[in-house]
Specification:
There is one protein chain. The protein has a single domain, classed as 3-Layer(aba) Sandwich (Rossmann fold). Helix content is 42%, strand content 13%. The protein has six helices and four strands. It is globular and about 50 Å long. The two termini are 20 Å apart.
């Protein structure tokens, strides 16, 4: 039996913070059912991380990529919070450096856009309309950075999800994780 190894890099949206499983588990299942291989995606996502924290964690864990040939990347939601408010030019610099590390590691990279927010879905949410505006800017940056590295065809559109995909307006339900996994699997199987 053939095995493929991958890493799912990101924040709580990748980890599945409001779900019983995350993108790594959902994507492994989706790919196992869609192909004649066994897929092992490892979750390397930490709740609350920003693009800078993901970048620094990558540098602290050189073993992170051992045996991996694929990598998904979904990060940026935490950068949109008012308390963080990462400027788009800083986001560009840091996100580009993440992509560079993944490309240099000779991984097939499948970056995802920053998913939309469902504003007003939770009274306790630190996300507002300013966050949604920042996410639009971040997604423009992600598209540009991916195109400049020849990754435009690998970009996964994680926006436009149905309301039942969200647990609290930000994080995903099992249906949301499954939809993300389906979208990533579709890109990966076309590689």
């Amino acid at each position: 039996m053939l095995f493929e190894h991958g890493v799912c890099l990101g924040d709580s949206l990748t980890a599945g913070a409001r779900s019983r499983f995350g993108l790594a588990e959902g994507l492994s299942d989706e790919m196992n059912r869609a192909t004649n291989k066994r897929w092992l995606f490892r979750c390397e996502a930490v709740n609350g991380e920003t693009v800078l924290q993901v970048l620094r964690r990558m540098d602290q864990k050189p073993w992170l990529w051992k045996d991996a040939t694929f990598c998904t990347l979904v990060v940026g939601t935490n950068d949109s919070k008012g308390s963080v408010d990462t400027p788009p030019d800083i986001f560009r610099m840091l996100y580009g450096q993440i992509l560079d590390r993944l490309v240099v590691a000779k991984l097939m990279v499948f970056p995802g856009l920053v998913p939309d927010l469902q504003l007003g879905a939770s009274l306790a949410s630190p996300y507002d309309s300013k966050c949604a505006e920042r996410i639009v800017h971040f997604n423009t940056v992600i598209r540009t950075e991916c195109e400049s590295r020849g990754l435009g065809d690998a970009l996964v559109y994680t926006t436009g999800l149905a309301a039942n995909c969200y647990a609290d307006g930000v994080h995903f339900t099992e249906a949301g994780i499954a939809e993300l996994a389906r979208r990533f699997a579709e890109k990966i199987t076309r590689r």
